[in-house]
Structures are given as C-alpha cells and as structure tokens.
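Example (one chain per record):
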Amino acid sequence: LNHYFCSQSTILENKINHFYHTNATSILSEIVISPQDVTDAIAAVDPSQASGPDLVSPRLIREGAPFLAAPLSTYFTQLIRQSVFPSAWRLANVTPIFKKGDPSNPANYRPMSLLSCLGKLMERCVHKILYNYLISKDLLSPLQSGFVKGDSTINQLTFLYNDVCKALDDGKE
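Predicted structure:
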C-alpha cells in the first residue's frame, strides 16, 4: 500500500502554475499572526481527533488555548519571517481506508493522512490572513467559488446553466 500511495502522489514543482492578479497594486509585505488568530484557529480544532506524527494532542491544544495562543502566535510569526515550516510538520501518519471492490487491490484504498496539529494551526492562521487580504483588496476573481465563504460550485453550475440557456435563446450554438 505504501508503494502504491507514493506512486500516486508525486509533485513536480516545475509543473506548478503560478497565477498573479494583473491589477494588483498593493503588496502584503508581512504576515503577523496575532494571539486572536491562533485562538480562532484553536477553536476550530476537534479535540476528539487523533494526534499526528508529532504526538501533540488536539485536546491538549484546545484545553490549553488561553495559555498557548500568545507564544504560538510569536512562534508562527517567527517561522514565517524566517521562511521555515518545520520538517516534523511535513510528516503524516497515513492510514489506508478501503473504498470498494477487491480488498487485495491497492487501488481500492484511499490514504487518510493524520497531520501535525501545530502545523495545521499555523496553516489556518496563514490562510485566514491571506484570504482576508485577498478579499479586502478585491484580488479574487468573481468566478472563484471554491473555498470562498458564502459561495459554492453550485453557484458556478447555475451560472454556466444560465449562460447556456441564454445562448440557446439567442440562437447561438
């Protein structure tokens, strides 16, 4: 299973597309994670989840939130300033989950990864700051629906359906 999962998840960094908004006039010069950002991220932690490879318990993080928010915000901000994401946070405990079909076929399993709780916290904080920045500067395309609060791919399907119907009404192919 390990060999199969590894063969299915190669990342070719030179194949990653980079998109830049051509009308962007402002620059996000620094990401500073506040204790409130960390507190908000901790509030989303499910304390019943299992620990990742770092063995940090989500329950411990959740219950220690009032004491951990300030030092974690300082630590996360320093990591960002130094352009560091700890290698221990890049590890995952992978568990195969059976889908359907022949249990002896590795293709009939999907990997479920347990990640580091602290790494996920930092990612949530960075996501919140970047997302709020993009929204406040109107840098997201109005056609962007995935992962946008209050929007969905159903809206995109409705938009597409409307365009097709309109084109047919106008005699277009």
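Caption: The CA atoms of residues 48 and 59 lie 7 Å apart.
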